[in-house]
Structure formats: C-alpha cells, structure tokens
Design brief:
Blueprint (H helix, E strand, L loop, with lengths): L1 H25 L16 H34 L16 H30 L8 E8 L2 E6 L4 E4 L1 E5 L3 E8 L4 E4 L7 E3 L5 E6 L4 E7 L11 E7 L1 H11 L4 H8 L5 H10 L10 H11 L5 H12 L2 H4 L24 E2 L4 E2 L2 H9 L1 H4 L12 H12 L3
Parallel strand pairs: 1-5, 4-10
Antiparallel strand pairs: 1-2, 2-3, 5-8, 6-7, 6-9, 9-10, 11-12
Bound molecules: copper (II) ion.
Length: 387
C-alpha cells in the first residue's frame, strides 16, 4: 500500500521539478546573457571550448554507460519476496582490470588535448602583425594602454578583428582577473607580476567582460566592454584617438582654431605642416576645437582644474601619464558606459556621478567633491566634448 502511494507521488514531483529545470535552463539563453564562455569568438577561446566539448562528450558517454548498466542491473536482477539468497561472490579480476584500464585510457584521451591546449594558450605570439595591449586592473575599473600606438583609454577595449592581440596584464593595487568570455578564459592580474593572454577576434561587435576575482566592495561593478572592430574602423579609431594628445589639450585651452593641424601633427609625429590624413579626421579634430567657445565648456574646464579632477584623471589619450588614480577621460564623451560598465553614459547619469559618485557606486575611490547641480552641468558639457 505504502509503495503504491509513493509510486503515485513521483509523477507529481516530476511535474513540479521539470518546469523549474526548464525555467533554470532558459536563464542560460546567450541572447539575453551575452557574457558567456560557451560561444567562442576567437582562436584562443576555441582551444578551451574544444577541450570542454571533448570532455563533455566523454562524460556523457560514461554517464550513459554507467547509469545504463546500473538501471539494467536494478531491473533485470531485482529481488522478489520469495527469492532464494543469491550466490555470494568476492572479486572479479577481469572486471577490475577493465574498469581500471578503460577510465585510464579515457583520461589519457582527455589529457592529451588539455596539455596541448595549456601550451598553446601560454605561447606568446610574435611578429609585426601582433598588436600589444597592456591591461591594468584598478579598484574598480580597467585601464587599456597601446604602447606601440602611445594610446591610453579606459573600460572600453578596442581591438581589430582578424589581428592577433597580445594582452600583457598587471594590477595597480590588488589581484583582479581579466575575463573577456567570448575571446578568452579568465586570467588573474597581479601587482608586480605580468600575466599574458592573446586572441584573434573573429567577429566585429560589442561584447561584455568582467573582473573575475573578488577585489573589494565594488568587484561586481568592475566590468568592461570589448569593441571588436573591422580593421578600417579600428584604424579610424586609432587615428581619431591620436588627435587627443597633449598638443590638442593645450590648443583647446588657448581656444586655438589651429587644433586640427596640431592634432594631425601628434598623429604623424611630424611638424604641423605634415600632410593631414583622411579628411574625416580633420573635421573630427575641428569638432573637438569647437566646444571651447561654449560658456558651459569653459566653466566646466575651469571646474575640472579647480575641483581637483585633473589630479586623478588625464584628458589626453596620447602619451597619457601612468599610475593615475582615475580612468582616462580623453574620450569619455563617446564611451557607452561610465563607472566601469555600471551605467549608461547619459548626461543625467554623468551629472549624478560627478555630484555624488558614492551614491551610484558605493565605496568608489572617487571622492564626493561637493559639486553643485549647476557645476555638474558645466562639467558634463566639458566632458561630453571629450570624445
Ligand atoms: Cu577586480
């Protein structure tokens, strides 16, 4: 009687648990949660993904065989009330050899690609086509430096599709972990020690990344975005960023209309007479020069100095000083997010951030500087023009 009731209860439990499991699995949808390591978009990520798949299929095979044998034995040899006691046995050399040798062979089959993958991912790509990026982890944001291009930016890593990127990583404070899941697995980032990874992105797009090592109160808001661009788009971005140098900053400060040629000079490393590059860049640089005539911009610029923002933030992308406490703001006006991927970069959030960063990101290492709403408006106008 008791047994019959339990047998009846089982389907109800299944009916309850199954939808829950389905709901759970729906949470894995890569469209809504793009921060996934299961859809690789680089050669490096594919190495890990292939090993994971190999291991997974072996595991499924083992699961089916073992559970199948178990279920078969349970049903085929189940006891009935008046069965005699079965024959008692002890040990079976043949079976023991089989269940030792077969798993050993399976483990070897998994170990070979795994060890090969470890060596492949640890190799350092060399050659003129390799783009080196330095990643510096900070509490709680990411600094990206391009030593060969002399560029610095923050929280948005621009890379060209189809070109191998060598990522050399370090930390300005505690241990972090750099994790751009579509392109590579997690790799720890240490103070005073360099770690590396490399990858060649396969598809243009904007992809999320995240610090993956608990590093303090705002670890959860230490995200970044990978902007994978076509080679042409990337070159245009580099050319534009190279107009955001110290000369441009100086020229803008004196309200010079010649900013465009100064920008071009930084870009080519030659005199201002050097031939301008693509026409679009000159207009971009000219647009940069325009804002100083806006009174809000001028007021914002004064506040940026007076409130001490300048002590923690650099406004030049070219040859930016190292070891700044806050993110580089040379192109902050163009970035999609602020607060290391935490908030959309709208004028409203930017103003709220400047007035009270602690309110948006508790414990953040940017102090509350007592900026009034009006002052914040001017600072937003100033920063928005830096793009
Ligand atoms: Cu971190």
């Amino acid at each position: 009687m008791h047994l019959r009731i339990r047998a009846l209860r089982l389907p109800r439990r299944v009916a309850f648990v199954l939808p829950l499991l389905l709901l759970f699995a729906a949470g894995c949808s890569p469209e809504h949660y793009p921060q996934t390591g299961l859809r690789p978009l680089s050669d490096y990520a594919r190495i890990g993904d292939d090993i994971q798949n190999t291991t997974f299929y072996w595991a499924v095979g083992v699961f089916v065989l073992v559970e199948g044998a178990l279920l078969y034995a349970i049903f085929r040899f189940r006891g009935k009330p008046d069965d005699p006691e079965p024959r008692q046995i002890h040990g079976n050399t043949a079976i023991e050899i089989i269940w030792t040798v077969v798993p050993a062979l399976i483990l070897a089959a998994i170990a070979v690609p795994t060890v090969r993958g470890i060596f492949e991912t640890n190799a350092i790509p060399k050659g003129p086509e390799v783009l080196t990026v330095e990643v510096v982890g900070h509490q709680w944001w990411w600094e990206f430096r391009y030593p060969d291009l002399k560029l610095t930016t923050a929280n948005e890593l621009h890379i060209p599709v189809g070109q191998t990127v060598l990522v050399r990583m370090g930390s300005g404070d505690v241990i972090h972990s750099f994790w751009p899941p579509r392109f590579a697995g997690k790799r720890d980032v240490f103070p005073n020690r360099e770690t590396r990874m490399w990858f060649k992105a396969e598809k243009a797009g904007e992809y999320p990344g995240q610090c993956a090592e608990f590093c303090g109160i705002e670890h959860g808001r230490m995200a970044f975005r990978v902007m994978a661009q076509t080679p042409d788009e990337f070159q245009a971005w580099v050319a534009h960023m190279q107009t955001l140098g110290p000369k441009r900053a100086a020229a803008a400060a004196t309200d010079s209309v010649r900013t465009a040629s100064a920008g071009a000079a930084v870009q080519t490393g030659k005199t201002p007479a050097a031939k301008p590059q693509a026409g679009g860049q000159d207009t971009a640089a000219a647009a940069q020069a325009a804002p100083p005539s806006d009174p809000a911009y001028a007021a914002g610029e004064k506040l940026f100095m007076a409130k001490g923002c300048v002590g923690c933030h650099s406004l030049q992308a070219v040859d930016a000083p190292k070891g700044m406490i806050g993110p580089n703001l040379a192109n902050v006006g163009a970035r999609t997010t602020i607060g290391a991927g935490s908030f959309k970069n709208t004028d409203e959030t930017l103003a709220r951030w400047i007035q009270n960063p602690q309110l948006l990101k508790q414990g953040v290492l940017m102090p509350n500087l007592g900026v009034t709403p009006d002052e914040a408006k001017s600072l937003v106008a100033f920063l928005r023009a830096h793009k």
